[in-house]
Design brief:
The strands form four sheets. The protein has a four-stranded antiparallel β-sheet, with helices on one face. Strands 7-6-9 form a three-stranded antiparallel β-sheet, with no helix packed on it. A two-stranded antiparallel ribbon has the order 1-2. It has helices at residues 5-22, 140-147, and strands at 24-25, 28-29, 35-44, 64-73, 75-77, 79-84, 90-94, 101-105, 109-113, 116-118, 124-133. The protein is an alpha+beta fold. The protein is globular. The termini are far apart.
């Protein structure tokens, strides 16, 4: 995966979008060094119910979160909910089509996904979550402080 040209294009395209959203001053786009984490999640219904976000509504502690639906088979549920971190407004939707993407400003939004239930044996929901952060990887501030 890491050697794939498509993978590199995806990471760079989202980094460019992150620059536009977080680093624009007037008409100038400043280019940032982004620290990117990638997480592949397969939530299955082997035990009758699958919990995409067992921690509930949360923030990831990054600048930008991209949730990409790779696929879902034999499941119902999995509604994504995003809410303003400082207010009552929000949206609810279900990612159903492969390669559908949800992008969110993590500082401004809280998000969660409801449990999935099987419609047939072996039901799964696969997602790729990419996070972009400007100040280093999470926890790197603590590492730097300990070294100082």
């Amino acid at each position: 995966t890491a050697q794939s040209a498509t993978w590199s294009r995806l990471l760079l395209a989202l980094a460019g979008l992150s620059d536009q959203v977080f680093c624009t001053q007037g008409d100038d786009v400043q280019h940032e060094r982004w620290f990117i984490e990638s997480h592949q999640f397969r939530i299955d219904t082997t035990d009758g119910i699958g919990r995409p976000t067992p921690e509930g509504a949360h923030r990831d502690g990054v600048d930008l979160v991209a949730v990409i639906l790779v696929g879902r088979e034999g499941v119902k549920g999995g509604e994504t909910r995003i809410f303003e971190a400082t207010g009552p407004s929000g949206q609810r939707f279900t990612l159903t089509e492969p390669w559908s993407v949800m992008l969110l400003d993590d500082a401004r939004m809280i998000h969660e996904t409801t449990p999935i239930q099987p419609e047939q044996p072996g039901g799964v929901r696969d997602t790729l979550v990419l996070t972009y952060r400007r100040q280093g990887f999470q926890g790197s501030e603590l590492t730097r402080r300990r070294k100082d």
